[in-house]
Write a structure and sequence with these properties.
Belongs to the glycosyl hydrolase 13 family. Its cofactor is Ca(2+); chloride. By secondary structure, the protein is an alpha/beta fold. The protein has an eight-stranded parallel barrel with strand order 1-2-3-4-5-6-7-8, surrounded by six helices. The chain has a four-stranded antiparallel beta sheet with strand order 11-12-13-20. Helix 4 links the parallel strand 2 and strand 3.
Length: 500
Amino acid sequence: MFIIALLTLLIRIAQCDHHNRTNQLPNRSTIVHLFEWKWKDIADECERFLAPHGFGGVQISPPSENVIIHLQDNTRPWYERYQVMSYKLVTRSGNREEFLNMTRRCNKVGVRIYADVVFNHMTADNSNNIGTAGSTADFKKYSYPAVPYTEEHFHHPFCAINNYNNVTEVRDCQLVGLKDLNQTMDYVRQKITKYLNNLIELGVAGLRIDAAKHMWPSDLKEIYNRLNNLNTDFGFPPKSKPYIYQEVIYYGNEPIKPSEYTSLGDVTEFRVEAELRNVFRGNNPLKWLVSWGEQWELLPSDSALAFIDNHDTQRTGNALTYKEARAYKAAIAFMLAHPYGEPRLMSSYFFNNSDQGPPSDSSENIISPSINKDDTCGNGWVCEHRWRQIYHMVAFRNAVGKETIRNWWDNGHNQIAFSRGNKGFIAFNVEGRKLNETLQTGLPPGNYCDVITGKRRGNSCTGGKVTVRKDGYASINLPGNAEDMHLAIHIGRESSLQAR
């Protein structure tokens, strides 16, 4: 009965049409968060890399005016982008015209833009009261004349969140000193809706709702109901709705649950990264992943935004990040190979402390990533989405489409493999000893390039090669101490030597 229930669940997961919900093109998948990138650089990246490699969309940093914050070393922290001064579209990433240039160019090549929007709060108290568009505020008086908001538009009495088991406190009090807007007020809803509809008019395909957990679902519902359809001038079909995904941090044992928000839109499933980091660090056996998904008490697949790390967990949690590359790449590969959820990747810059902002010059301008001959980035940018082991897994996900999981194999511990129907096959080895097995791949017979160790180049492979027999079986070899702990092949042109 367990196997039947599992197969039924996996079939239902695979049949969910993510493309209609996310507004991505049918042959694309995966959102990448180009954290703190400039609008012009994102437009360039859509054209030169993301579109050619099948990425579905980009999450951008908040486009609304933020307060300018200087740290003790006179640098600017990343978190200033989450302290709102007004809804003017002027930040270090660019202005309104540059924003529009980005959405036009990215949509033209089929890469969607999802804006990270902050409207739970405005700023905290800061020594500087000038924003990136030149707006000013009186923090003590809760006065933001560029909106305008005054004291009456914030929750009263003014209080701080101290007890996350108190639902009212979490939603009506101030998160780390950030002045908490009262979204129940119609005036506040109007201002927020005007801002969001402005972004929709300028060509975004969806919205990432920052701090959704700290707002009442009933208030969010009223705001979402006022959103316009997507702008058909950017190639969206008529009556398309913006894709909504909401930040609700939840690891269990709190009264506010992600399920309260799933009727409104997708929800960021933080337990994905929490569980997978334990598996790929070797703390839990890989064999347990046979039931990965809702049976792990995760959100329904068609409501979940899945990720391994984000801009917060990189700095404040125990998440896998680029700093732990081997396990990180494997966890991402599993996330992209498995049909659970809508995946989002993180693309970072190098940082040494949790406050550090993006690479900048002496005039505080963000420095553009440089592109190396091997497709990696320079100028202080990590660009995980340009790592071969990651962007090739985006192609894997595109190639397997809606296929279900089949041909599961494990060794009873930390070696696993499975296929996605007859279109893709992947294997993982987290043990110290070699994986050397003849396994059913489900794939058509022929030669395939392992897209983790290399790529297809003409009729040969720059990395490993796997030969699939007529019966679908292949000899799978994974050393226990290799640079990467996984192998992947698929029917797409990046892997199959038969594909043209």
